[in-house]
Design brief:
By secondary structure, the protein is mainly alpha-helical. It has 5 helices and no strands.
Length: 97
């Protein structure tokens, strides 16, 4: 999909879920944590750590949809993160109201 070292690491992280590699979760966290925490901060989520954990669980659960999307790994992960963060933000809003 993309030939940069960062893109290759992102793709390998998601592919690790598909191959059921024991270190797939750790690799995914190492590769995507900076991006996911930045997105959580931008979304002003109260518990950023819990938000990132929920996003990583989503990535693990839905990793098979990534290849079918034809998106780069980073773009797909960003979209998945934004989806989860919108959900968490709406839950925060309803709790605050």
């Amino acid at each position: 999909m993309n030939s940069s070292p960062q893109a290759a690491a992102a793709e390998a992280a998601l592919q690790g879920f598909g191959r059921e590699e024991p270190q797939a979760l750790q690799t995914c966290c190492q590769v995507f944590a900076p991006l996911l925490f930045a997105l959580a901060q931008h979304a002003q989520v109260v518990d950023q750590e819990a938000a990132v954990e929920a996003i990583v669980r989503d990535l693990e659960t839905h990793h098979l949809s990534w290849p079918r999307s034809s998106l780069s790994a980073r773009v797909w992960v960003t979209g998945m993160a934004q989806r989860r963060l919108r959900l968490l933000s709406s839950q925060q809003s309803s709790v605050a109201a």
